[in-house]
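Worked Example 4.2. Consider the chain below.
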Amino acid sequence: MLNNIITSKTRLQLLVKFFISAANSGYLRGLAIEMNENTNAIRKELNNLSEAGYILREDIKSKIMYRANNQHPLFSLLQQIVKKHLGIDQIVAQIVERMGDVTQIVLIGDYAKGIDSGCIEIIVIGNNLNQEYIKQLLPKIEKEINKKIKCQLLEEYQGKGIIVFDAK
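Applying the procedure from the previous section yields the following structure tokens:
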């Protein structure tokens, strides 16, 4: 969806990296390795995004670190667009609809780190969750969003991740 509007694959990877979670950050070489791109392509897009104010540059111990500018007026909108592009909004809507007593949905793994690997890992937290429904639902969503989904059903979770749904 978004790759039809943003034709630069590198720019799209950077937007996913920085806007899936405001906590994500990176430096030039690390991003180039992570995204399997050359440093010149990454540098060009980092410069474009920082000049536009979407990401911030910080000098930290002789490295320039980049992160999302959460004060930018379009920050929350860009986060929503990235989540919609990845299909996370569809996953959440369909799971919450008929899953049972869902209290939270947490994004973990590569996408929580901002890496567009093609496999979305989520943890659905709640009581009396409908396991049969999720088994039948996931293949349909995978086909719609063209990504693999790994899902764990738990009654509670204390680990790290990005909370994409919270019933509280």
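The two ends are 31 Å apart (CA to CA). The chain has a mean pLDDT of 89. Compare this with Example 4.1 before moving on.
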